[in-house]
Design brief:
Blueprint lengths: L1 H5 L6 H14 L17 H13 L26
């Protein structure tokens, strides 16, 4: 699996595009030293996958992603509810 993951041809082009967008959007400047953002996803599993992908992608590690679940309970985690 590691060999497959290191092969550029096996990477997801949508994730590559998302990574490029995130790097460009969240690079800090002297005028704006800190930026924050939210990524929305349809499922909790996809949120987990995105967080893991960001943490494991060298160019994106500076983002320090966190999970935020909208409503309900998920494996004992507290969630936001209205």
């Amino acid at each position: 699996m590691k060999v497959i993951g290191e092969n550029p041809r096996s990477r997801n082009p949508v994730l590559n595009a998302l990574g490029d967008i995130l790097v460009e959007a969240f690079q800090t400047t002297a005028e704006i030293p800190e930026k924050r953002g939210i990524l929305f996803a349809r499922t909790r599993e996809f949120v987990d996958a995105l967080v893991t992908w960001i943490k494991e992608t060298e160019e994106l590690k500076f983002l320090k992603p966190l999970r935020l679940i909208g409503s309900g309970r998920y494996d004992g985690e507290k969630c936001i509810s209205l």
